Amino acid sequence: MSFPTAPMRSLLDEAHKAALPTGEEEVWALNLDQIEPHSGKVLAKVMVNASEVGPSTYVFNKGTVLYCKLRPYLNKVVVADDDGVATTELVPLRCDESKVLPHYLAHFLRSATFLAFATNVVAGAKMPRMVMSEFWSYPVPLPPLEEQRRIAAILDQAETLRTQRRTALALLDSLTQSLFLDMFGDPVRGDGRYSVQAVETIASEERYSIVDGPFGSAIKQSDYLDTGIPVIRIGNLTKDGYYSSSNLLYIGRTLFESLKRSNVLPGDVLISRVGTLGNTCIYPPDAGEALLSTTGVCKIKVNPKVMLAEYLHAAIRCPSFQEQIQKSASTSVQKYFNLSSLKSWQIVVPPLPLQQTFATRIASIEALKATHRRALTALDALFASLQQRAFSGELTLAAPRAPAQSLEQLQQLEASIGLEALIFIAKRMPDGDLYNSLKAIYFADRHHLEHHGHQIYNETYCALPHGPVPQSAYDATRVLIGERMFSDFDDDAMRAALRRNDKKLTALRDADFSKLSRSVVESLEWAVRYCSDMKFGQTKTASHDSAYERTPKNEAIPLQYIIDTLPPEARQRHWNL
C-alpha cells in the first residue's frame, strides 16, 4: 500500500507569521551546532536577550519543523518545543496541521529515503546546500492524520529506546574514565606518583611497532577485492573507542605480504591521524591480521613488559590526551599528525601490576558495554526497518490470524495461553536456558498434537539456522531486551513476568494455571523433562526433524509438515491421514 503525496510547499501554513518578543525578554537562539544529527535532539538551549538577536536570523514558534539546508547529509531536523530565533541555515516549516503533523514530517525528513535525496540535490562544493526549488517540490507521502500520529508515536518510541541505550553506553564510558583518573590521575601531566615518558618508550622493541599505512600509490583502486585481508580505514575506528568491521575493503595475500610493515595484529592500538584525529581502538582478538590503509590510521604495538594495551587505549581517550593530540597536529588541506609527533606524546607510566588491576576492573564494564552495543545495533536496524515501512505504507496494524481452513493454515494465536506457557517453561528450565526454553515449546506442541490433536496456543514456527523457533514467543523475548518494540503477547504483562539477560530467561512468577488446561500442563512438563539436561548441540539435533529439514531456511514451517513427523496412529486418529 502506498500513500498519496503532495509537494512540500503545499503542506505549509503560509499565512502564519511568527513574532519576536520585545523589550528585555530573553529568547532561545538556535544554531546548527546545537542540533544532534539524525535524532532531532537539541544538545543545548542558548538564551540571549531579544535586543541582541543578529540580522541573519528569523523568528519561529513552538511546533515549527526546522530543517538544516547546509550540509544536508548531517541530517539535522528538529521540532521546536518553544518559540525562538534561528540561523537562516535552518528552513522553518510551519505545518498546516489539517494536512501534515509536525512530528510526522520531521521523521520523514530524517528518513533514509529523504536523506538520500537531500544528499544528492545540493549546490556548492565546500559548503553544500540543499537546492531549495527541489526541496519545495519534493512529494511527501500523506497518510490520514490519525495514521501520521500513529507512525510518529511508533518512531518516537523506537528513538527513545535507542537514546536510552546510547545514554547507558555514555554512562559506562564515563565510569571507565573516572576509574582511570582515580587510579592514575591525568595521563599526560601526571600528579607526581608515576613517571611521565614519551610514547615511543612504551612501544614494543619489534620493528615497526609504531607505524602508519603504506604510501598512497601502493594500493590502487583495482587492487581491492570482495574478500581477503581487510584494510583498516578511519571509519573502522569509532568515536566510542571500538573497532567496527563495517564497510571494510580487502586486498589479496600477495599484495599484503609486500606491504607487511603496516600490518595489524590483535592487541595493537589503532589511532586515526588525518581529518578526524584521536579516534582509537584495540584491534580485537578474533579479527585476524589486517593492513593499515594508505592514509588516516596508525598503530602502536605496546611493550607488554611496560604497558598494557587497555591502559594505553583508556589514556588516549582521556580529554587531556585528546588535547595533546590536537596540539601536535599540523594543517594542510586537513588536520593531521605525523609519527614523529606521536612518538613524542607524553604519557604517565604506572607500575604494570596497577595497570593489570585496572584492566581487570574495566573488563566487567566492557562486557556490559558490549551487551548494550549489540542491543543498540539491533535497535538501529529495527528503527531503519520501521522508517522504511512507515513511509511506504507497510507499517499497518497486524490483522488477527484467521482460523485455519485446512492443515496448511494455523489457527488464530491464543496469546494469553502462549505467554503463560512461556512463563511455565522459563520457571522450570535449568539455568533459564533461553535456547532450550524456546525449543521446549516446539517439543511440547508436537507432544500435544500427537496426544490431543491440536496445538497448545497455535504458534507459528520458523526454520531458523539452529532449528524451529516459536515466532511469537521468540519475538516476545526480543521485546524484553529492546530488539523489538512489540510482540503478539501482552507486552506489559510479559515485562512484569519475565526478564531476559542475553541467553537467560527468568520467570518472576509462576504460570497462571487457570489459563492452562491439564493436557497443556502435561505436554509442557514432558517437554521440560525431555530437553532440560540437553546441551546446545543435543537440543539442536533433536529439533532438526523432517518438518524442519523440508522447510526452506527462515520460512514458516507448515503445520502439515509437523503433523507428518508424528506416529501413524496419531495421524490416523486425529486427522484420518
3D structure, described in words:
This protein is of the alpha+beta class. It folds into four domains: 138 residues, Adenine-n6-DNA-methyltransferase TaqI, Chain A, domain 2; 53 residues; 155 residues, DNA methylase specificity domains (Adenine-n6-DNA-methyltransferase TaqI, Chain A, domain 2, Alpha-Beta Complex), CATH 3.90.220.20; 161 residues, no CATH class. Helices cover 39% and strands 16% of the residues. The chain has 18 helices and 27 strands. A four-stranded mixed β-sheet has the order 3-2-7-4, with no helix packed on it. A four-stranded antiparallel β-sheet has the order 13-20-17-18, covered by helices on one side. Strands 15-14-19-16 form a four-stranded mixed β-sheet. Helix 11 runs parallel beside helix 15. The protein is globular, with a radius of gyration of 29 Å. The two termini are 40 Å apart.
Strand order of the largest sheet: 3-2-7-4
What number of structural domains do the residues give? Answer: 4
Q: Look at the helices and sheets and give the structural class.
A: alpha+beta
The largest pleated sheet is described as: 4 strands, mixed
Low confidence ranges: 397-411
Give average pLDDT, whole number.
89
What amount of the residues lies in strands? 15-25%
Number of helices: 18
Question: What would the principal axes of the Cα set say about the shape?
Answer: globular
Q: What distance separates the N and C termini?
A: 40 Å
Using the CA coordinates, give the radius of gyration: 29 Å
Query: What's the total count of β strands?
Result: 27
User: How helix-rich are the residues, as a percent range?
Assistant: 25-40%
